[in-house]
Please model this.
Amino acid sequence: MGNKSLSAKLSQAVLIAVLFAVSVVMIIPILHVVASSFSSQAALIQSKFLLFPTDFSLDAYKYVFSTSTFMDGMKISLLITVAGTALKMLVTLMLAYALAHKDMPGRKIINYAVLITLVFSAGMIPNFITFTSYGLKNSLWALILPALIDPFNLIVIRSFIQEIPAEIEESAKIDGANDARILFSIIVPLSMATIATFSLFYAVVIWNSYFDAILYINEAKKFPVQVLLRQIILLSGSLGDSSGMGLDFYVPPRTVRMAVITAATAPILVVYPFLQKYFAKGVMLGSVKG
Amino acid sequence: MSQTRAKERLASMLPQPPRIGSLWKRIAANKWLYLLALPGVLYFVLFRYTPMWGLLIAFQKYNAALGFLGSEWIGLKNFTDFFSSPDFTNLFRNTFILAIYNLFFFFPLPIVLALMLNSVRSYRYKRIVQTVTYMPHFLSWVIIASICQVMFTTEGGIINDIIFALSGKKLDFLTNPRFFRGMITGQVIWRETGWGTIIFLAALSGVDPQLYDAAHVDGANGWQRLWSITLPAIFGTIITMLILRLGHFLDTGFSQIFLMVNPLNRDVGEVFDTYIYRQGIKEYSKLSYTTAVGMFKSVVGLALVFCADRIAKKSGSSGIL
Amino acid sequence: MFRNFSAKLFSVLLAALIALFALSACSAGSAPAPSDGSGAASESVSTDGAEPAEADDSPFEISIMTRMGTAEAPLPNNPVITEIERISNTKLNIEWVPAAAYSEKINATIASNDYPMVMMLENGNKRGTVEVDAVRAGVFWKVGDYMPNFDNLKDLDPGTINNASIDGELWGMFRTRPIVRNGGYYRSDWAEKLGFGDPKNLDELTAMLRAFVNDDPDGNGIADTGGLAQEQSFDTLVPMLAQWYGIGQEWEIVDGIVRPAFENPEYINMLKYIKMLYDEGLMNRDFATTEATKRDEMMAGDYGVALVSIDKGDLSLVPLQQRYPDANFNVIVNFADSPHPVHGRSGFDGLYYSAKKAVPEEADFLRIMNWYNVMYSTEVNNLVYRGFEGEHYTKTGEDAVSISDEQNAKYILEVNPMEQLAMRFTKNIYKVDNLPYYNAQVEAFFAGKYTGQVDANPAFSWDSETFNEKGKDLETIYKDARIKFVTGVIDEAGWNSEIERYRASGGTEMIAEYQAAYEALK
Model:
């Protein structure tokens, strides 16, 4: 007994140490970005690798918030992320649930069809031509509908649902519930970890979208915040094909680049801790026994 | 799980009675399922399959001004040009090696990290580490590349300063072809390991804690519990993730590579995706050519998925089809 | 049987899908319906068939698609735009497209046949295939035919017009930019301390670099100063040095024979010079992985020399003077002793094209030409580059102004984005007194001193099929080889074999095609 708890304690200690090292490696560049955003440009140039705000300055943030562009973009981003995630999750869940039933005729074809779209995509221009013919030009729907269901997400959610014991559904059917009722009142509560996970995945994708926004949307006031972020990063001179850039650009200092990244990423970062409670152990199990 | 599957396989091997009549009955019985599936299926038809005429561009010499119907048809020429171009072997080798590195060095890590997080006793510590490790995913490759430049450069980069202090030498991480693949894979590991744990943690949350308690009572130690309870519980998820990942086997991700490639490491750095970019973007829009290359990648990915799925099914998993 | 049913269902679905494909492919080939009216970019003109002679005085609406050069798009009530509209009697519906996806947006616009009335096409070092294809397909109005009828447009620089032409004709209205655009910046305070002036020749430049690196110009006793701050692209370094060695830009014409610049016997000497700078530590040894902004930051205190685009020098100045208030730059455009002309660029950046689909009536296109005419006037030019008197600058003389910090802040917000609309960067713009590094060279450059002595890249308007196919790849071969030579990865024999590879990979064909193009356009 004594030996076992000692080795158990030891492995816990090793675990904690390893996780600590991993966390440190992960967080150092993040600290750099955040610290740089709160420093002056001169301090940033002079230092080797800033980890704490040096020569504290809010200039970068003042620049970011100096016009309403940032906040306008934030509002748009919030709107499309919340609405879009809800819609995408709903549609995906419904289809995944349907496809989880092995006795549904036509299931195989749809599965194959979905799989093909996992690897084949039509390309930006054919998509653009097709979707604008649907009327998506200059519409925020262009940021939601084209990627409404991610085949990857669909397949994984389907496989998760398939692992739910059949008895649960059978007993509900005996009680007279139809499939829709079963989905929403029984399967959903049992799949909260799955739903939380993929809602997060969808949300992040929508939140990060900027390319489609530029392509489909004409009015600057409808741009999500990531468009602003990308523009600032681009102007700050990224690596790669620098010779292709035009010569008429005004270049914001590097601190501004850091500030926009921090400000545009912070909202989505705070979502995860709220979702963590769904990852608690044994979420599913009570209902089978009960 | 595998017991039910074995039963099903057995049942399907017996002679089947004619089922057309019962087929319509089954459709009717499942009408709710069809209703639920309808929006999703409509989506796939309208937004995924309808634009697929675009894939035919690969068989044309596409001229944007003339449009799809006005452009010349050249059959398989784009493909033959691509396969016979002197770059092809290099591109294939670079892409393939990076894909293998990714598979072997990156793929297991989120699983390992998820298992580690799962075994930590302190709930609070687990939450903190989780939050920290998933932050890197939110930095775009542009910033990551830029930070790598600053950290790893031989002229005053902090990493090289440390190495120099320890060994008196400097390593040209950013320009030496020897380091390129390690750098790329390292960046992927840094950015995506934490994020990748999410799905496995979700799967782990479905494990009955009573199983652990029972094992503990039976005298199983931590490793044995891991081996006989935890791993089997997420085995299906691991297989699913692996198969799906193979669908994108030749996709290396354009931004990351493009930002880290320079004239000195281009020999090992140029992959299909950067090649497509250089050919297909800005002034030189050779859309047909790039569509053909993309198609090639997709076909390979699809083939890999089918093979992997077959293998998975043969060894008892349910696969993804 | 269940299997048969599956097969039948599958084929019915397939047929339906194919029908769907065909349907949408048809609509893709022809012009789809214009977008819903909420988009600004494709509003059509509403002159109701009025003859130009009739007094239709309502402002002419023009929809414009152009690239955003600043972080944010100008606000809708931007005073500069309002003033331009008033002067030109137009209503401008400008769609500012972020640079991150500009070329893709252009491609998509052309592919979907849904044009704004005026569309800006970027140009890199060469005319793009999309642009050329569209021009040859007859999509656009030919600007060149109409230019002579307008006062401000009839005397534009013929060299620039030549560079902007496709197949010998000018199809788009180009935005004039300085032809001479490269400049060598150096720290004048360091130079003064160590006894240097403007480097008149290459040896003086080298001596200055050595002094900057070795002689502690900032006087702090630590060897922390650098010489040349170089970024990963040689696109400004090589043209500036090539001026000294007498090498042409990218392409040369010698005795009627066209050849790439690197076939000039002096080219390898120039590369050896750069290599010397690298080996001796007179330039930053990690240039191959240095981004342009990092290079700008290096100039802001640690390095003494940079060869950059001349109008971007002030980027480094502000952070530099934050750290060292007495620091300053001087700039040269060419070595004073140099017997060779200055290398110029194309003379323009971007062209405005008008698609006939969006502007069906010639009368309307004439009104667009009229707008170009207005944009090319001195008055609008100063408006676009300097803003309003009092708000954005204070006049100090006939042709000169000064800008305070407060005015500068307003400038950045309201005027700076307008650079993307600016049509003519010329000597007519007010000079800014309190630009710290302002000196004789820059003044001469603004005053057009170099216009007669400029040597341009002749290949700009030559067309080559091989270039369209592999141009970028070929370029990569010799550009990569340069860098590898400088860093010592390959030696001179390696350089030569890379040149051979260039020829073997299509270079020979391209040279021949350029030769033919040159002779055709002579």
Remarks:
- The mean pLDDT of chain C is 79.
- The domain at 182-245+282-343+430-445 of chain C is CATH 3.40.190.10 (D-Maltodextrin-Binding Protein; domain 2).
- The longest strand of chain C covers residues 60-68.
- Chain C touches chain A through 72 residues (CB under 8 Å).
